[in-house]
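Notebook, bench 3.
Goal today: get a predicted structure for SdpI family protein from Micromonospora trifolii so we can plan the truncation constructs. The sequence was checked against the plasmid map this morning, with no discrepancies at the termini. Length recorded as 112 residues. Pasting the sequence as submitted so the record is complete.
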Amino acid sequence: MVYAFLGWLVAFSARASLRPSVNMYRSPGVRTAATMKSTEHWYAAHRRVERPLYRTGILLAVLSPLPVVLGAAFGDPPVIGAVLVLAVLVVPYLLYLGYVGNRAALAVDDGR
């Protein structure tokens, strides 16, 4: 259930962070010094990572029943393995997307 919730949260925040009425100081998203400089920086970063972040959230939510299915079929060790694999794959990828968003925000200053 935790992975399903996190998946939907990631997918929702990917779309919500681009709404015109978003308050960048209170909404989830890529929060680095570069993205928090201005709304222009915020939107540049989130436009760049919106699609991969949304897809990652949906994929995480869809794959969230995998540990339960593996646990019912094979017992505890596959459940632990599936949870660890999801965590080891998803967390670094989300950190990478944060890096990509930060670079997009920094590029706003280079384009001026």
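The helical segments are 2-16, 39-63, 66-74, 76-110. DSSP finds four helices and no strands in the chain.
Flagging this for group meeting.
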